[in-house]
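Q: Give me the 3D complex with KE4.
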Amino acid sequence: MPTESEKLFERALRVMPGGVNSPVRAFRAVGGTPVFFARGAGPYVWDEDGHRYLDYVGAWGPSILGHAHPSIVEAVHRAAALGLGFGAPTRAEVELAERIVTLFPSIDQVRLVNSGTEATLVALRLARGATGRDRIVKFEGAYHGHPDSLLVKAGSSALTFGLPDSPGVPKVLAELTTVLSYNDIPGIEAYFSRMGSEIAAVIVEPVSGNMNCVPPIPGFLETLRGLCSAHGAVLIFDEVMTGFRVGLAGAQGHYGIDPDLTTLGKVIGGGLPVGAVGGRRALMEQLAPEGPVFHAGTFSGNPVAVAAGLAALDEISRTGFYERLAALTIRLTEGLRARARAAGIPFATVAVGGMFGIFFTTHTSLHRFEEVRSCDTERFRRFFHAMLKRGFYFAPSAFEAGFMSAAHTESDVDATVEAAGAVFREIG
Ligand code: KE4
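A: Here is the predicted complex, encoded as structure tokens.
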């Protein structure tokens, strides 16, 4: 008897490419039929067959308070009853902009947009417009949404030009992007010594969350900051994932480094589509209508989405929020590591604030994309499905980070660790 998810996926495949609206949801990395969710509440989600799962994906980061948080739902209802948007300024977007400026000392002004992709797109255009340069530097394994200039893979060597990472990305554009190796300080220094005067911007995930979870090594972010300042390049922290996930002042507050531009998303919308790009006034004033660098958007600053974001910020600003979130995350990663060790499984974990990584590997800690790429994805696949069957939903890819919510309890985490102990013994 097919499940509701299987029946829905069959319908979806007929009318949507791959049956999904975003590739990672298709379970291609782990196999099987994607789970279709009917509802969420707190740390749990239920599929269309009524199965309940403890959720460690959290909509890829936005659901830091858990699903259907009462104060967010109430804020959305209240805002929606006043109109769904006007294409005109509203009080709410000013309040959200003021909150971001207050929380991020590196941000004097902010432009609200509708997704992380739109935020990085605008940040790149702003950096290129402000510097008059075209070259962008990104890091292998990083994902910044899908602007053409960022769908680029490393050329044959770090000093050659980027290659399109998707059909449809013009080669001439990809060649303007250089892909370096995350945490490779000597490589970055060598590149800047040759090309520094041509670089418009370096865009970096201050904690890499799209090649699983890989934190910066000491000196990595500091080196980027120093080199960008010395060569007049714009340092962009892509905090779409880390912003409000790692701490209330983002990864920049956690590591004490001020970028020139910051992109935000996910948590900032409380679960609804909001992105943002912010930074120094001298840079942000280049944006239309103040300056010549163009950006526009029908739904930018949408009052209903912004109301959800403001409600989320109220909740995560409460005293002790991040201490508890980090403690829950560490409780999970330490517990998983102990159970894997007891089962004799090569396994590593990392935790930064409310995000974490789990790796089936002999490496005890991972700092480079190559190390992550060498992990045992087959073992991860077996772990993923065995945990899913037991009612625990992890990211359906060995190359994604995991996300804790404030709705999770210690007993939720302990139950996860208990189940994983059995699974580690099972997958052997
Ligand atoms: P969106 O356009 O998906 O809102 O944001 C793109 C983006 C930008 N920067 C970073 C650091 C990001 O992690 C993302 C999106 N993250 C993925 C999860 N790995 C979203 C999930 C998906 O693509 O379906």
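A quick observation: The mean pLDDT is 97.
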